[in-house]
Amino acid sequence: MTTAPQNLLAVRNLLLTYLNVDKNAVRPADLEPAEVGIVGDASHRGGYHCGSDRVVANDYSVVESARDSAGLTLDASALDVGEFTVTAGGKSHNLRTFSTWCVAQCVAGAADTRDIREIIYSPDGTTVRRWDRLGRRTTGDSSHLFHTHFSYFRDSTKAGRDQTPLFRRYLTAIGLIEGDDMSAQSESEIHQVYAGMFYGGSSMGRRVDPDGTGPQPSANSLVAKLDYLMLRVDQLSAQVTTLAGRDFTDEQAIVTGVLAGLPPEKIAQAIPPQLAKDVADELARRMVA
Hints:
By secondary structure, this protein is an alpha+beta fold. 43% of the residues lie in helices and 11% in strands. Strand 3 and strand 4 form a beta hairpin. Helix 1 packs parallel to helix 6.
């Protein structure tokens, strides 16, 4: 059955820790546990809220990206966040401002958004919009007036990649999490290392095909290059094993080569007398015949 992966449960727990202010009561202003969902209900079929047992034929959450088809497991790969209102730093923050902030991070190419396939949201409670990394769709149904949907490429869920950094940055930006003294430059450098490791970039050199004829696209990330290296090592190991089992000795070719390099008198000297007589008799017989 479809399951909720640990990396998205960690995001859920983080959001509830800071946005469900009164955990002993249900309040309209709070983000309640029932408003943060990962797995679709029992009747839900198709889409990122479903794992491999509940996707449908030509499911867009599987067929539109190699990252999804290669990463399909029983895990759901989506997160829904419901309405909330919280005050921090003298300002009011809600689902609308949260959603537009997250979309802006995706548009800017922030390293901690690279696994997000799409965000379906409402910037104003009236219009539904969709930011789609693949550029396939621009809107969604009206239920997204009241909740925001995050889809993650399934390979990132399969890998268990930590998805909390984006949301931790948001909570820090609005003042719910106390920031540290890390400089903007240091944070940028960390993001660059993260991006280079998992996604590559212009400074990462040549692109490689990490799995040969497999579904993974060519990339120049460190992970892709390690996969490429291991593939080549495995291929080399198989070739060495094959060669080790072969007999490269051709005795006839060796004898022919040796004899070709000797004059007749040397060959005659090397043959024992009786063998020489037998050879001469056989040659004479063949010439008569």
